[in-house]
Amino acid sequence: MIQSQKQLQSKSPSAEFSGTSPQLTVDLGALVSNFNTLRNAVQQSGSICAGVLKANSYGMGYERVAEALWAEGCKTFFVALVGEGVKLRALFPKATIYVLSPYLNLDADLLREHRLIPCLYDIDGIDLWIAANNTAAPAVLHFETGINRLGLSTQDLEQLLSNRSRLNKLELKLIMSHLSSADEQQSEHNQQQLEAFKRIRNEFPNTPASLANTAGIFLGTEYHFDLVRPGIGLYGHDPHYYENQGSRLKPVATFAAPLAQIKELKAGEAVGYGATKLDRDSTIGVILCGYADGVMRALFKPVNKEGHQVTINSYKAPILGRVSMDMITIDLTTVPKEARTIGSMVEIFGNHSLVENAAAMAGTSAYELFTRVSGRAVRKYD
Ligand SMILES: *Cc1c(COP(=O)(O)O)cnc(C)c1O
User: Fold this and answer.
1) Rounded to the nearest whole angstrom, what is the distance from the C-alpha of residue 88 to the centroid of ligand 1?
2) Residue 318 is part of which domain span?
3) Is 99 in the pocket of ligand 1 (CB under 6 A)?
């Protein structure tokens, strides 16, 4: 028997979306709760808890996320790009907005015009920023301590200190660095970077300092300094989830798409590209989201026919068959009939099908799965 879309007709389509779009539902209450968990974790240290909103707030929509954080007293935001800062500034005239990856050759005017504060990571950038400002130029100095991405080198630091003319022209808001391995609690890199950062900090006794991302916050008070920069923790992933086998934070994102068709197939028949052969008689559901929406192809392994477990009406069902651009097929054979209704929203990741499990299967991280959710998915908020 094939169930069909007729069953959908009783549901009126929402004006906001067609009813068949994948949905990313963002639980703003959980987001705020995570912010408070992180803020409380650094309270003893007297550290300020900022929020990292880059990449459209890790795919969750920067407007609503920023609003919720602002209402909770989070007044300092970090973004990666100047363009992200400009959009945020339009909403929050009074926020302190730091830009992590400015490109000073091109960005100086926009930074000034929108009162965005660049995190400077080389001497050329410092000179360009000073030249672009008539008065002391507000800035963060981002120092390299071992991740070897953006950051002022030890030589740059010596140069800045040996002749202080540049430093005198900056209004230093913060010195910062970034940890490479904070998600690995036992990594020796953490302690090494901490020591390197403390040595740098000694040269700037009157400037607030910042080292920790989400994972760094959980490494302990030594890592907190004056301001912390959590991103992923706000969005519900505990970076020590795998090591601790549990989360200290609440899931925020639910990524789901509707069940569009159900079919009964016989053992030996096949599903999807590459014709994955069925080992038994099976009930197969077709879900309207695919890799174009951010469902990674790696969530189904053709070699052993293993698939990520999605959730339909509280029942688990594995992806079975290759992930297509706009569709996936799932195995509903063991899901009771009453739980497999056309139009049901099937959770790809969320409270039941954990993003951590999906990430482990796809050989990636929660960060990548969140930020891969495409623009085609409707963002909803509760
Ligand atoms: C992205 C980023 C963060 C936030 O990291 P999470 O691991 O998401 O908490 C903090 N600092 C810098 C420099 C970053 O690039």
Assistant:
1) 17
2) 2-25+251-381
3) no
Confidence of residue 258 (pLDDT cuts 50, 70, 90): very high
Name the band, by pLDDT with cuts 50, 70 and 90, for residue 363.
very high
pLDDT at position 259 is 97
CA separation for the pair 138, 117 (Å, rounded): 6
Average pLDDT of the residues in 276-283 = 98
115 found inside a domain: yes
Residue ending a domain, choose from 178, 212, 238: 238
266 as an active site residue: the answer is no
Q: Please answer whether residues 261 and 3 qualify as being in contact, where contact means their C-beta atoms are separated by less than 8 angstroms.
A: yes
Question: Using a 6 Å cutoff on CB, does residue 230 contact ligand 1?
Answer: yes
141 and 165 in a common domain: yes
Q: Are 21 and 69 contained in the same domain? A: no
Indicate whether 202 and 89 sit together in one domain. Answer: yes
Q: Is 213 in the pocket of ligand 1 (CB under 6 A)?
A: yes
Chosen domain end from 187, 212, 238: 238
In this structure, is residue 65 part of a structural domain? yes
Instruction: With CA atoms as reference, report the closest residue to 285 among 245, 238, 360, 341.
Output: 341
DSSP state of 22: -
pLDDT in tens, 96-132: 999 999 999 999 999 999 999 999 999 999 999 999 9
Cα 230 to Cα 39: distance, rounded to the nearest angstrom: 10
Look up the CATH number of the domain holding residue 303.
Answer: 2.40.37.10
Could you tell me which residues come within 8 angstroms of residue 106 by beta carbon, excluding any fewer than 6 positions away? Answer: none
Q: Are 16 and 41 contained in the same domain?
A: no
Q: Which residue has the tokens 């039941």?
A: 352
pTM for the full predicted model: 0.94
Q: Maximum CA pair distance of the chain?
A: 80
Q: Assess whether 365 and 268 both reside in one domain.
A: yes
pLDDT digits (tens, 9 = 90+) for 212-255: 999 999 999 999 999 999 999 999 999 999 999 999 999 999 99
Q: What percent of the chain has pLDDT over 70?
A: 95
Q: What's the number of domains the chain is made of?
A: 2
Q: Which of 35, 52, 60, 119 to mutate to test the pocket of ligand 1 (most atoms within 8 A of CB)?
A: 52
